[in-house]
Amino acid sequence: MRSRGSIRKILLIFSFVLILLGVWFSTTNAYTFIKGYLLFQTGQTKIVKSVEKPSRQQENLNQESLYSKRPNKGENIGKLLIPKLNATLPIFHGTDEEELERGVGHFEKSVLPGEQDNSVLSGHRDTVFRKLGEVGKGDKLIVETSAGTFTYRIKHVRIVDKDDRTVIVPKPRATLTVSTCYPFDFIGASPERYILVADLISQKLT
User: Fold this and answer.
1) Is 156 a residue of the active site?
2) Contact criterion met (CB below 8 Å) for 191 and 158
3) CA distance from start to end of the chain
4) Angle at the Cα of 186 (from 185 to 190), degrees rounded to 5?
5) By three-state DSSP, how is residue 185 classified?
6) Contact between residue 199 and residue 152 where contact means Cβ atoms under 8 Å apart
7) Are 89 and 104 within 8 A, CB to CB?
8) Domain map of the chain by residue range?
9) How far is Cα 195 from Cα 161, in angstroms, rounded to an integer?
10) Are 45 and 32 in contact, with CB atoms under 8 Å apart?
C-alpha cells in the first residue's frame, strides 16, 4: 500500500502536468478552434462584413454637408466636365425623360456631387454620352456645382444588366457613378448599362 507521501507526490506531478497542458492549450490554435466550434454549435456566431474604410485623405475631402438645401427637380445643379472628350455637359436634378433630354440627369435619391457616399449621374448614349465608351479607368471626371469643383478619378468600368441595382448602392467614400445605355450601337432598348465608378481625389470649395 502506497504511503501518503507517495500519493501526495503523484498528485503534485499530475497537477503540474495539468497546468502545463493548460498553458499550452491557451497559447495555441487549439483553444481558438474549439471555442469557435462550440460557438458555432450553439448558434452564437455572428457574420461580420468588412467595410472598406476611407483613408485619412478621403476623410478630409468628405464633408457632412456641402449644400445649404436640396435642389428642386429639374433644376440645373452644375456641369460635368470630361477632359478625355473635351466635353462640358449640364447636370439637372432628376433622371426622368424631361431632364435627360436637356443633359445629364442626377439620380434624386443619391447624394449631391462632392458629398460622401454615391452620387449617381445618367445620360442618353445617343446624345450627351455618345462617346462615353472612350472614357475608362484612370481618366478624370470633374463636376462643378454651387458648392465647388470636385475632381474624380475613374477606378472601375462596369457593364451590367439594365436592372442591376448595385449601381446605386451606398459607398463608404465620396464616389461619382456615371451610367448610360450599352451597347452604344444597339438599336432599340439597350439590355445593359455602361458604368464608370470614380473616387473623389480633390475638391475646391466655393
Assistant:
1) no
2) no
3) 96
4) 130
5) coil
6) yes
7) yes
8) 4-42, 56-205
9) 10
10) no
pLDDT tens string for the chain (206 positions)? 556 667 777 777 777 666 766 655 444 444 443 444 343 344 433 333 333 444 544 444 444 579 999 999 999 999 999 999 999 999 999 999 999 999 999 999 999 999 999 999 999 999 999 999 999 999 999 999 999 999 999 999 999 999 999 999 999 999 999 999 999 988 888 999 999 999 999 999 98
> 102 is written with which cell numbers?
436637356
3-state secondary structure of 5: helix
Q: Which CATH architecture has domain 56-205?
A: Beta Barrel (2.40)
CB 44 within 8 A of CB 56: no
- Helices in the chain by DSSP H: which ranges? 4-26, 29-42, 56-61, 97-100
Q: Count CB-CB contacts under 10 A for residue 85.
A: 15
Is residue 106 annotated as a catalytic residue, yes or no? no
CB contact burial 114-130 (16+ within 10 A = b; e otherwise): bbbbbbbbbbbbeebbe
User: In this structure, are residues 151 and 144 in contact, taking their beta carbons and an 8 Å threshold?
Assistant: no
